[in-house]
Amino acid sequence: MKVVTPSLLRLALLSTLTLVSSRALAQSTPAATQQLQLSAFVAGTGTLTDLSGGKNLGITAGLDITVLHFRAFRPAAEIRGTYPVDGGNISSQKNFLVGPKMEYPIGRLHPYADFLIGRGGIDYLRGGYIFGNIKYLSSNTLVYSPGVGLDYNLTHNLAVKVDFQYQHWDTPAVQSGSISPKAFTLGGVYVFDFNPRHRHSQ
Predict the structure, then answer these.
(1) How far apart are CA 21 and CA 87, in angstroms?
(2) Interior CA angle at 111 toward 144 and 82, to 5°?
(3) Whose CA is closest to 48, among 40, 38, 58?
(4) Kind and range of the H or E element at 171?
(5) How far apart are CA 194 and CA 32, in angstroms?
(6) How far is it, in rounded angstroms, from Cα 17 to Cα 9?
């Protein structure tokens, strides 16, 4: 018959307590949650160029990095660019914008407002745009673009985007020196999930 010494009993007891306490700690620790969310969108954009009634049809693509740990409002940073595929017959406008965005999720609905700033380029079509005695072929400018929009979640990873931007462009081709294009965007959003255990509001 094997005799169990006190030292062996103490060792066994210590090992058991360590194992139980480590399991209890693991069960009491909440699953890690995703603090930042990355999403990408691609959309079609119709723009009223505010230059002689011109219109553009373009493609808009962008990325959002959103902070998730606030209960109501979710601040984000956005980067987007729009490139015209059909510039009409007056002017063709392209831009690259970045700026802050604030989202207020309500279930599947994610309304937001943003204020984007960047660079824009105008190509004047049909051989150039004549103002006064000068023919303008192209111009570049700083663009200010406040806007509002809505993302509607279809699934955990997919959403539909509706977006409106009211923009300010400077141009030497008009008497006022500036134009205010209005961009209407409709497209899709893909949300990247780096933590499968986390589920943001649908």
Answers:
(1) 68
(2) 40
(3) 58
(4) none
(5) 11
(6) 12
Helix (H) or strand (E) holding 78: strand 74-86
The residue-averaged pLDDT of 78-85 equals 97
The contacts of residue 120 (CB under 8 Å, 6+ apart) are 93, 94, 95, 96, 140, 141, 142, 143, 167, 169
Structure tokens belonging to residue 106: 């309500």
d(CA 26, CA 32): 12
Q: Tokens for 90?
A: 């007056």
Contact 125, 100 (CB under 8 A): no
**CB-count burial class (<10 Å; 0-12, 13-18, 19+) for 185:** buried
Q: How many residues does the structure list for the chain?
A: 202
- Please write the tens of the pLDDT for every residue from 18-38: 443 444 334 443 445 678 999
Closest by CA to 66, choosing from 41, 115, 111, 102, is 102
Let me know: does 36 contact 68? Beta carbons within 8 Å.
Answer: yes
Model pTM score:
0.79
Q: What are the Cα distances from residue 112, in Å, to 30, 101, 106, 162, 164? A: 30, 7, 11, 10, 11
Interval 87-112: pLDDT, tens: 998 999 999 999 999 999 999 999 99
In degrees, to the nearest 5, what angle opens at C-alpha 111 toward C-alphas 103 and 94?
85
Q: How do residues 157-198 score in pLDDT, each as one tens digit? A: 999 999 999 999 999 999 999 999 999 999 999 999 876 555
